[in-house]
């Protein structure tokens, strides 16, 4: 049994990861993974809260698992599994649904924003996924959950559900569910869109030109950087609010080249975009090559990938089913005979 604190995190399998996902989150996980006992899952149950394509769901799930490994997640510290392979996630969600007041969910900012877009087609899943998220966390009795600004409210909800459950069903001083804390990691890079330096790089942006995906081939990367938005000023600089694109592209170059901010500022202060773009292109291609090579090798060895996910499921299930049994016992259920 590890004495490291347990961290839980999940990412939806919506196709390809981009540089924003990698530099903003995954690279930090990889660098800090040895400090924790990490449970990292592919959130395919969350992936259907919005209309999804059944033809690509499984393939995207395997792609994401392979990318996790290719980016350097180490199975000595990290358990990688698929959410839907562990049925306790769905079962605990139902049990927690029945003690979660409806108004807690209708007050969620993300629900309000997304529901407006879907109008009358909005599914119960979109309202309810914060309870699924709570179940994801609580099944593994996680100590810490990495959260960005947009998910803080959901972790607060998880803590509210824990307190409510333990108050209603646990003995005093013997909580059934553990209260998780947010893990505010050192600030990952905030990578902005290539077509608009004021907006975050996002999977949901309709333009492919707005993001560089981890699996983009060199010619695609070259095309995207060639077409990316710039400004007419010669000489590149960080942190000028009037020049968001300059700041974003220099930040990308800094992160992918491994140079310091000072080094990059000095190197690029007199450059024109025509000189800088080929430099950024070459640096990006070189930085992604080891990840892409490793990804291809993993995808070519299907047996290996399946064994990782099988072992991940077995390890996750053992913990999740134990928690689920404790929850059901506390709620007064008979146990299967």
Task: State the low-pLDDT regions, or none.
Answer: none
Shape from CA axes?
Answer: globular
Q: How are helices and strands ordered from N to C?
A: EHEHEHHHHEHEHHHHH
Strand fraction: 5-15%
Number of strands: 5
Q: Mean pLDDT across all residues, rounded?
A: 92
In helices, the fraction of residues equals: 40-55%
The rounded distance between the terminal residues' Cα atoms is 30 Å
The secondary structure category is: mainly alpha
Q: What strand line-up does the widest sheet have?
A: 1-2-3
| Biggest sheet overview | 3 strands, parallel
Radius of gyration equals 22 Å
Quaternary state, please? single chain
Number of helices: 12
Topology overview:
Blueprint: E1 6-11, H1 19-32, E2 37-42, H2 54-70, E3 78-82, H3 88-97, H4 102-106, H5 109-118, H6 124-139, E4 144-146, H7 152-169, E5 181-183, H8 218-227, H9 244-257, H10 261-268, H11 273-300, H12 302-331
Parallel strand pairs: 1-2, 2-3, 4-5
Helix pairs in contact: 2-11, 3-6, 3-12, 6-7, 8-11, 9-10, 9-11
Q: How does this structure look, described?
A:
The chain is mainly alpha-helical and about 325 residues long. Helix content is about 55%, strand content about 5%. The protein is built from 12 helices and 5 strands. It has helices spanning about 20-30, 55-70, 90-95, 100-105, 110-120, 125-140, 150-170, 220-225, 245-255, 260-270, 275-300, 300-330; strands at about 5-10, 35-40, 80, 145, 180-185. It has a 3-stranded parallel sheet. α3 packs across α6 and α9 packs across α10 (about 260-270). The radius of gyration is 22 Å and the shape is globular. The model has no long low-confidence stretch (mean pLDDT about 90).
